[in-house]
């Protein structure tokens, strides 16, 4: 499926076929495609928990406004954004940049300064925005890749973030920008038409 077709076909699916499973291999392939998403300085400040077992999906449903699709989907992906990815990943990214020829080692210090200058100290709001923004790009790429692999998705932010953190052992400083249900459309379900505001209403050419 080409990318334009995947964009057009993607819908937020409310009714998943609860009898369908997706293999771990397929989910890993999907996430690997997702990691092709761009990220600031290539810092990739994201993590994912793949919720597949019926017990854990039930627990997640309780944290997610009791949304039935959470339990019916073959899997639900918890997208986690890590504001501390700067500390964790920067050295590794810079090493790779030098190794692959993106930069010379003399440029290392200037890049470190640029990153901290842009995203501030660990607990700053800038850090939270950085992590959540990049992880949202990742989640969107995963959703389009899923479409390409013949799967359906549904992004959600109707959940209690603290409850999910507690249930799945996610540390306090991390952020959950969204969870995404993944699976197959229940047979016989017809989707309602989608609507969008016209491009002219939200676009200015200057
Ligand atoms: C960040 C985000 C959070 C959302 N949260 C929910 C949710 O908790 N429950 C839900 O039923 N739909 C949720 N949606 C789905 C939207 O309602 C849906 O994408 C929108 O109505 C457009 O429909 P379409 O995706 O089928 O084109 C969410 C979408 C996004 C992008």
From TrEMBL:
GO terms for molecular function: oxidoreductase activity. It holds the Pfam family Nitroreductase. Keywords: Flavoprotein, FMN, Oxidoreductase. This is Nitroreductase. It comes from Acetomicrobium mobile (strain ATCC BAA-54 / DSM 13181 / JCM 12221 / NGA) (Anaerobaculum mobile). SUPFAM superfamilies: FMN-dependent nitroreductase-like. The keyword Cell membrane does not apply. Its cofactor is FMN. Belongs to the nitroreductase family. InterPro entries: Nitroreductase, Nitroreductase-like. Residues 7-184 form the Nitroreductase domain.
